[in-house]
Design a protein that fits this description.
This protein is α+β, with helices and mostly antiparallel strands and 367 residues long. It folds into two domains: 14-171, no CATH class; 177-366, Heat Shock Protein 90 (2-Layer Sandwich), CATH 3.30.565. The chain has helices spanning 11-14, 29-48, 55-87, 92-118, 130-176, 182-195, 197-214, 224-242, 267-278, 311-333, 359-366; strands at 222-223, 246-251, 260-261, 285-294, 297-305, 338-344, 347-355. A five-stranded mixed β-sheet has the order 2-4-5-7-6, covered by helices on one side. The longest helix is centred in the middle third of the chain and has 47 residues, at 130-176.
C-alpha cells in the first residue's frame, strides 16, 4: 500500500522572517513616512531653540530647517535603501559602521548644498564661516546618527528575544496537545493485525502522521487542506473503534484550502467532540464541521451532541486543551483570532476564528 504524505510548506517560507539586518527597510513607504515625521518633529524643536526671534522669523526659520532636515532624512533613506542588499551580507558591527558613515556623508553633502543656497538666510544663524556650519551639522548628525543606530540595534535584539521566547512557548504548547487516544488506537491496531492487516497498516500510517505533526516545528505553518487531511485520518482511526456510532457531516466547501494555519488547531476540537460527546452516547451521534469565510476572516465550527448529565464533566475535561488552543492562537495571530465555546440544545459548539493568510501573503510581508 503506498504511503500517503501530506504536502508541507518549508519552514523558511511559512515561518517568521529571519531579521539578518538590524536596520529597518527604508525602501518601504512606512519607513520613509516615519523618517519624514521624525525629521519634522526635530525641525520644530530646533526652530524653538533661539529666543531672540520674532514670530515671523521663527516661521521662516522652521521652514528652512524643515527643508534641510527633510533633505537629509530622505537622502539617508534613499542611500540605505540602495545599499541594503550589500549591508545584509555584513555582520552587525560592519553594517552599523557603514550605515554611520553613509549618514555622515549625506549630512556633509546636504550641508554643502544648503550653505551655498542659503548662506545669507537666518537658517545659518550664529555661524559665520563655511567650516563652522559644516562642522556643526556633522557634529549634530554624528550624535543623532549614533543614537538612532543604537536604538535600531536594541529594538532588533528585543524583537529577537521576544520571538525566541514566543517560539519556545508555542512549541511547548503544541507538544502538550497530544492525542490521548494513543492507547485505544494501539489496542485497535493490535486487534486488526491478524484480522485485517491492510487496515492495521493504514491505521499505523495515520497515527504516525498525527504524531509527526505534533512533534513538528511550531513555526512551520501548513495549509488548511493539510489540517483537514489530518482530521480525517484521526477520525478514520476513531471510526475503527466506534464504528457507525461516529458520523461526520462536513460543510466546508466555502473554506479556502490554501489558507495557512498552525498545525493541530482543528484536530484537538474533533478529539474533544469524540471523547466528551460521541463516546458518552450509547447510540453515538453526528459531528458537524462547518466553515465560512467573511472577507479576510475564516470561521470553523465543530458541533457535537452530549448527554445532559455530562455537561459539567465536559467543561472541566476540556479546559486545559481549549486554553492551550487559545494561547497558541494568541501567540500566532494576537487579537486577530479567537476560540468561542457555546452550548445550546444538547449541542456543544467550538468556533475557531483566524485571519485568512496564504503563502503569497507571507512572502509579500517578508519582502
Amino acid at each position: 500500500m503506498p504511503v500517503k504524505t501530506l504536502q508541507r510548506i518549508d519552514a523558511t517560507a511559512a515561518g517568521p522572517p529571519r531579521d539578518v539586518l538590524f536596520l529597518p527597510n527604508f525602501c518601504s513607504l512606512r519607513s520613509v513616512f516615519g523618517v519624514v515625521v521624525i525629521a519634522e518633529l526635530f525641525a520644530i524643536v530646533l526652530a524653538l531653540v533661539p529666543n531672540n526671534m520674532s514670530l515671523d522669523n521663527r516661521w521662516y526659520n522652521l521652514a528652512m530647517i524643515s527643508m534641510f532636515l527633510q533633505w537629509v532624512g530622505l537622502g539617508c533613506s534613499a542611500l540605505h535603501c540602495l545599499s541594503r542588499p550589500y549591508l545584509a551580507h555584513l555582520n552587525d558591527r560592519q553594517a552599523a559602521l557603514l550605515s554611520y558613515l553613509l549618514m555622515l556623508l549625506v549630512v556633509a553633502i546636504m550641508s554643502e548644498v544648503a550653505y551655498w543656497l542659503l548662506f545669507d538666510n537666518p537658517f545659518i544663524y550664529s555661524i559665520d564661516s563655511h567650516a563652522g556650519f559644516l562642522l556643526r551639522n556633522l557634529f549634530v548628525g554624528a550624535i543623532i546618527g549614533g543614537l538612532v543606530l543604537r536604538y535600531f540595534y536594541m529594538q532588533q535584539q528585543w524583537r529577537r528575544r521576544i520571538r525566541t521566547e514566543s517560539q519556545a512557548r508555542l512549541q511547548a504548547l503544541q507538544s502538550r496537545i497530544r492525542p490521548h487516544f494513543l492507547f485505544n488506537s494501539m489496542n485497535t491496531i493490535a486487534s486488526l493485525t491478524r484480522s485485517d492487516p491492510q487496515q492495521a497498516e493504514q491505521a499505523v500510517e495515520d497515527l504516525a502522521d498525527l504524531f509527526r505533526m505534533s512533534l513538528s516545528d511550531a513555526r512551520q505553518n501548513h495549509r488548511l487542506e493539510d489540517e483537514l487531511t489530518l482530521c480525517r485520518r484521526y477520525l478514520d482511526i476513531e471510526a475503527l473503534r466506534l464504528g457507525e456510532r461516529l458520523q461526520v457531516d462536513w460543510q466546508i466547501d466555502a473554506l479556502p484550502r490554501d489558507a495557512l494555519m498552525p498545525p493541530l488547531l482543528l484536530q484537538p476540537l474533533l478529539e474533544n467532540a469524540v471523547y466528551h460527546g460521541i463516546e458518552t452516547l450509547s447510540g453515538g451521534g453526528v459531528i458537524t464541521v462547518a466553515g465560512t469565510r467573511k472577507g479576510n476572516k475564516l470561521r470553523i465550527t465543530v458541533k457535537n451532541p452530549y448527554p445532559v448529565g455530562q455537561a459539567r464533566r465536559h467543561q472541566k475535561g476540556n479546559r486545559l486543551a481549549l486554553e492551550n488552543i487559545r494561547e497558541r492562537l494568541q501567540a500566532v495571530y494576537g487579537q486577530q483570532a479567537d476560540l468561542v465555546v457555546s452550548r445550546h440544545d444538547n449541542q456543544f459548539s467550538f468556533s475557531l476564528y483566524f485571519p485568512y493568510r496564504r503563502e503569497t501573503d507571507e512572502d509579500t510581508d517578508r519582502g
